[in-house]
Amino acid sequence: MINVTKAFLPPIAEYQAQVQRAWNNVWLTNRGELVLELEEKLKNYLSISNIITTNNGTIPLQIAMKLFGNGGEIITTPFSYVATTAAIVWENCTPVFVDIHPDYLTIDETKIEAAITSKTTAILATHVFGNPCHVEAIEAIAQKHKLKVIYDAAHCFGVTYNNQSIFDFGDMSTCSFHATKLFHTAEGGAMFCNDEKWFKQLYYSHNFGHKTALDFHGLGINGKISELQAAMGLAVLPYMETILGERKKVVDYYNSNIDFSKLKGLKIRENTQWNNSYYPIIFETEAELLLIEQKLNELQIFPRRYFCPSLNTIEYTNGKPMPVSESIASRILCLPLYVGLTTPELDTIISTINTNL
Ligand SMILES: *Cc1c(COP(=O)(O)O)cnc(C)c1O
């Protein structure tokens, strides 16, 4: 069986050696030695100055909505994983969707201003598939209207834009370290913020607001990552070059062998060093997508319809129609992409697409 992705597993002895450290310390969570070491190594690897690792990639979105949303309207993208919208609604804010760019698939910055009202407090946009939003335009709009900008950068591990980590943009960014993501800790995530004051607030928020054992800095929740998760991260991190390199080989192979006469691929924004995190193909019709999906499923190959449905159509969002996002969502399929996919497997996937379209 070939799934859309497969978690990268380091040699188990290397994971066990990390876990052994937690045993030796008899220390399983509350920002122990492994978490602190992982954060230092990630800062170094990503060339960033601040990070707070968390227990998943959704809690940072919730914390962001709690701190920056203020129960207001949040301008957001309809084309993302459901967590982006769910975090907004879960924290009692209102998602206001803005349609996406048909090639980049990120929020269409030219349509943002028309959606701003007196109740708008923030913009939550996704660098979807690791493809950066138009960060300059969004920053200008946010400054003009005094809005906070939060980027859901769940797909963005290792992505740089203009030679700078994509996590450096906006008032804060979030990432997911879920098992299916590029770099992972089984479950996990992170938040990034370069403003010292907000960084502290984010930090307190992810640990119940604790300043000291008896003293609190306002309201907080439990967003802490454990030592066991950090152990996985420390065991996976040395393999990032392998992970990125092997994925690039798969992407290059798809690029040069898929017949694109009836398909479109993802357009990566200029000046981006991309991470090959997903391989979406966009069909001309949903019927063609369903046909290819069925042919692949018959061969025990399971691509995924990332991202479908368009989030404005989910019943709890009351979203207005988003023609571009709804159209793309109905026609986009992410092909298997992970370390260890073999050339014969890739050839099967590619010929199934090329011969049935
Ligand atoms: C994976 C993902 C999340 C959620 O991350 P978890 O670690 O699964 O909580 C949020 N946003 C996007 C775009 C994602 O793909």
Description:
There is one protein chain. This protein has 357 residues and is α/β, with parallel strands linked by helices. It folds into two domains: 3-238, Aspartate Aminotransferase, domain 2, CATH 3.40.640.10; 240-356, Aspartate Aminotransferase, domain 1 (Alpha-Beta Complex). Helices cover 37% and strands 14% of the residues. The protein has helices spanning 12-25, 33-46, 59-69, 82-90, 135-145, 196-205, 227-236, 240-257, 286-298, 323-331, 343-356, and strands at 2-3, 52-54, 73-76, 94-97, 120-126, 148-152, 160-161, 164-165, 172-176, 189-192, 263-264, 272-273, 280-283, 301-302, 332-334. Strands 2-10-9-6-5-3-4 form a seven-stranded mixed sheet, with helices on both faces. β5, α5 (135-145) and β6 form a beta-alpha-beta unit. α2 (33-46) runs parallel beside α7 (227-236), α3 (59-69) crosses α4 (82-90) and α9 packs across α11. The protein is globular. The structure holds pyridoxal-5'-phosphate. Pyridoxal-5'-phosphate is lined by residues 56-58, 80-81, 83-84, 126, 152, 154-155, 176, 178, 189.
Summarize the structure.
The chain has 357 residues and is α/β, with parallel strands linked by helices. It has helices at residues 12-25, 33-46, 59-69, 82-90, 135-145, 196-205, 227-236, 240-257, 286-298, 323-331, 343-356; strands spanning 2-3, 52-54, 73-76, 94-97, 120-126, 148-152, 160-161, 164-165, 172-176, 189-192, 263-264, 272-273, 280-283, 301-302, 332-334. It is built from 11 helices and 15 strands.
